[in-house]
Model the fold of this input.
Amino acid sequence: MSVSTEWAWNDNAIVVTADGRVDGTNARDFQSALEAVIEASDQAVILDMERLTYISSAGLRVILLAAKSLQRKDATLAICSLSDPIREIFSVSGFDQIIPIHATQAEALAARKS
Done:
């Protein structure tokens, strides 16, 4: 299984939906997709991970790099809709202390507005 991404504009943010697995074999594809979105955006990016089934340390690095790239542009990255196993990975790695994590896409969009 590989990762696929789709993105759409939504309430002054770009929502990127990740689907599948992000591992060492496709982390570069995931990175390229996020870089394209970041390049096109001057605003927030919300990474919806509801359909993500696995993420490796390489995938976590990609997300961290994306967050830093957005920060340099005075934009933000938020993550939403994590499954319990993926949420645990983010918690153990400390990412939940660095990048805002929301239960749903609607919650992430609402946080963006406030």
Observations:
- The mean pLDDT is 86.
- The radius of gyration is 13 Å.
